[in-house]
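Database export, one record per block. Field names are fixed; values are copied verbatim from the stored entry.
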Amino acid sequence: MEEERARKKLLILYATQTGNALDVAERVGREAERRGCPVHLLSLDQYDARCLAQEGTVIFVVSTTGQGDTPDPMKGFWKDLLQKNLTRQWLEGLRYAVFGLGDSGYQKFNFVAKKLDRRLLDLGATPIVQRGLGDDQHPSGYEAALDPWMASLWNMLNKIDPNYFPNGPDFLIPYENFMAKPKVRILYHDIDKVDSQVSSKSDLNHIALQIERAHRMSPVKFSLDKPDCILKLVKNEPLTKSGFKDKEVHHFEFEFATSLVTSLKFSPVKILLQWMFSYAVVIWTLNHSSQFILQKWRINSLILVMSMFATAEHEKERLQYFISPEGRDDLYQYNQREQRTVLEVLEDFPSVQMPFEWLVQLVPPLKTRAFSISSSPSAHLNQVHLTVNVVSWTTPFKRIRAGLCSNWLSKLDPEQGVYVPVWFQKGSLPPPRPSLPLILIGPGTGCAPFRGFVEERAIQSLTESTTPVLFFFGCRNEDNDFLYKDFWLSNSQDGGVVSESKGGGFYVAFSRDQPQKVYVQDKMREHSEKVWKLLMEGAAIYVAGSSTKMPADVLLAFEEIVSKESELPQESAARWLRELEKAGRYHVEAWS
């Protein structure tokens, strides 16, 4: 019996896009271990879905990204779960629990956790507890849902099989007993220093080799393989008016310094079109890879370990209070609301002498940054253009924060010979056919992919017939942040691909140029007849921009337009739009 108990492990599978689901999975695993239950923690892309029917109990921790999208590590697993040959009895012996991480500010709140829960039920699995839905909008963050969910999980697991917790679910091993050593070991390697001045193709190959060597020397699984190519910066141009405090946006132009390498099986023409419309550039910089200490961090794990190494009693007590249920709200105010960096937290608790191995284990590497391509390869041979909002904000305690990648890019000087390794990833906006009418909504930098759309269609119109394009753009002021003003106006004149004479149109909402704010959805309602006419002609809708309120407000405007013009109830209009989405005619690409 004791041997059986020793072998009893709890399998925890997670899928994360930015690291939060991994943080939760580690927290669940740590709490299980404190109760005497060993765990096996795996990312879903490391797990074979065919083995699921042989498992006894599985805990899933999954995040929802974008507008209800599945995180990348879960895509293969989810595809396997959707196979038509799977029966309703396939998972009859499986007990499971699902915890999701989402944001109720999005229309499809925790959509991935909900659909995973439903699919497991459909395949015959039995839930241990009701799914938990963490909400980033809650005053206490996702932990407001996580704590009670875990309490229920331990109690139910103990009732199902006491072997999971030999001493009961309330027995807790002190943290110090099973966290005495970090799980990582530091290896130091001598590598050649990378010279920032690149003068030849051999130098470019040297940079790519350094990146590949960094991948090979680390036991950690990287989310990206070696770069698809290296780009040379040839233009860095502000698009917003100098001195405009509300926003700073730059236009970047890069040339291919090495050939594009891709494993996607397209013909040459389709590579260019797919790449231009539905791929994003992911940038990772050698000279910024050491700044991991400046980013947001795994809060509970770090605070816990810091409390173990604090030598000042008042600091130890404060840290232990933060990780207690009573201190959860104060910790949220201290960290998430203020968005403190690791360095700032360590400065707040100077008696903490944490070994470097622990710091490396607890602080995740810099996240990659994806940018939508804002150019057509047909219009700009051998080039990639980006439209980048330079991120900055002020915390509740008036700390000035700046986005690492966007601020670094904004200060680059093309005259200095700047080269960056990049990756191309498939986006969520499929390339439209020339025969497909388009309704585009892209306020702010949401216009970026549509600049490429219009460039491509303008070239197509020289040799073939193209359909109307209706574009709604939004910004604060006509004089300050009317991005690509000359480009849009030239293409909206008579004969242009976004002109009224071609059946489309270009309409701008300047939200701050009048006493009452005007947004893209207001302009949509003004031109509801034209919107409805294009929808009746088979138009596809593309929405791009901020993921806060804009996508939901735009969808509501479409519901009202469809209801008004079709003389149907708004509920029917909403169902009609959902069918439009299922048919591949309503696309959203949003970012925070």
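Remark 1: The two ends are 52 Å apart (CA to CA).
Remark 2: The chain has a mean pLDDT of 84.
End of record.
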